[in-house]
């Protein structure tokens, strides 16, 4: 798990929490604001990760203040989730999430308006696009790895008002 921070304000969001499953490489992108607390991180984790995918065996993250807080540490301990923290100044410990962050940033900068004030509306589509792109090592998408089929999205009309 990692945060991409310092985006221009979009609604009330200025950052994105990125969670990547190491097996399937499926990603979850959650618009956020940079001043969340450890309790809010736990609520986001429960709402967006645990409720849909169950508890992970471990969580790889950097040593950001939220991930090393006593609250987060105790929560992971109670849930029997191993925390794998990167070494200081070595983000490559969580290289998979760092790569996803880079892809997401590229996607958003290509599609966000000149004003950069509506990027949060593109997050669901960015997540869908990422999770349905074929992974070169697996020769299938993350969606296919999880669900055993490709998504149906013919005839979808998406409007941006």
TrEMBL record:
<dbReference type="InterPro" id="IPR001584">
    <property type="entry name" value="Integrase_cat-core"/>
</dbReference>
<keyword id="KW-0694">RNA-binding</keyword>
<dbReference type="GO" id="GO:0005634">
    <property type="term" value="C:nucleus"/>
</dbReference>
<dbReference type="InterPro" id="IPR012337">
    <property type="entry name" value="RNaseH-like_sf"/>
</dbReference>
<feature type="domain" description="Integrase catalytic">
    <location>
        <begin position="1"/>
        <end position="159"/>
    </location>
</feature>
<dbReference type="GO" id="GO:0003723">
    <property type="term" value="F:RNA binding"/>
</dbReference>
<dbReference type="GO" id="GO:0015074">
    <property type="term" value="P:DNA integration"/>
</dbReference>
<protein>
    <recommendedName>
        <fullName>Integrase catalytic domain-containing protein</fullName>
    </recommendedName>
</protein>
<dbReference type="InterPro" id="IPR036397">
    <property type="entry name" value="RNaseH_sf"/>
</dbReference>
<dbReference type="InterPro" id="IPR050951">
    <property type="entry name" value="Retrovirus_Pol_polyprotein"/>
</dbReference>
């Amino acid at each position: 798990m990692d945060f991409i921070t310092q985006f221009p304000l979009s609604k009330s969001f200025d950052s994105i929490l990125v969670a990547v499953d190491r097996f399937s490489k499926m990603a979850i992108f959650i618009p956020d604001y940079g001043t969340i607390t450890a309790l809010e991180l736990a609520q986001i984790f429960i709402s967006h990760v645990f409720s849909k995918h169950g508890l992970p065996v471990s969580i790889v993250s950097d040593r950001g203040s939220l991930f090393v807080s006593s609250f987060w540490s105790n929560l992971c301990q109670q849930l029997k989730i191993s925390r794998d923290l990167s070494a200081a100044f070595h983000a490559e410990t969580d290289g998979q999430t760092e790569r996803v962050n880079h892809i997401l940033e590229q996607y958003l900068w290509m599609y966000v308006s000149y004003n950069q004030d509506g990027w949060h509306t593109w997050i669901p589509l960015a997540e869908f696009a990422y999770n349905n792109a074929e992974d070169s090592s697996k020769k299938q998408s993350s969606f296919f790895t999880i669900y055993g089929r490709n998504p149906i999205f013919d005839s979808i009309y998406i409007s941006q008002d």
